[in-house]
Amino acid sequence: MTQPEEPRRYQVFVGDQLALELRGESGILVSASAPPPLPGTAPVTHLFATAVFRMAENEGELGDLLREAADLDSFLEAVRDLGYRVETGEGL
After folding, report:
1. Does the pLDDT value for residue 90 go beyond 80?
2. Which residues contact 29 (CB under 8 A, 6 or more apart)?
3. What are the residues facing 39 on neighbouring strands?
4. CB of 19 within 8 A of CB of 51?
5. What is the pLDDT of residue 88?
6. pTM of the full predicted structure?
7. Domain boundaries, the chain
8. Which pLDDT tens digit goes with each residue over 9-26?
9. pLDDT digits (tens, 9 = 90+) for 24-47
């Protein structure tokens, strides 16, 4: 029996500051600027990403790109095109 493949993991940086931590699997989006969902309400989810925003000042732009992207690769390409640095790794 084979082990399920681990989702791809990324960190997105503005200069040396971490702006976003991302896993390539459907899941929740955790905001740096908004309070957590109220009890009984569902968190914000995404079809192909689980993400934690780390910088409120970039959250709007990165969130828009994530919502507009057709898939994870197109999102990563879009953030790189805007000058963000993307790092990948198993230990993230």
Report:
1. no
2. 43, 44, 45, 46, 49, 50, 51, 53, 63, 66
3. none
4. no
5. 92
6. 0.87
7. 9-88
8. 999 999 999 999 999 999
9. 999 999 999 988 888 999 999 999
**Angstrom distance (rounded) from CA 58 to CA 61:** 6
Q: Is 22 exposed, middle or buried (0-12, 13-18, 19+ CB in 10 A)?
A: buried
DSSP states of the chain: -PPPPPPPEEEEEETTEEEEEEESSSEEEE-SSSPPPPTTSPPPEESS-EEEE--HHHHHHHHHHHHH-SSHHHHHHHHHHTT-EEEE-TT-
Q: Is the dihedral of CA 70, 72, 75, 76 positive or negative?
A: negative
Q: Mean pLDDT in the chain?
A: 92
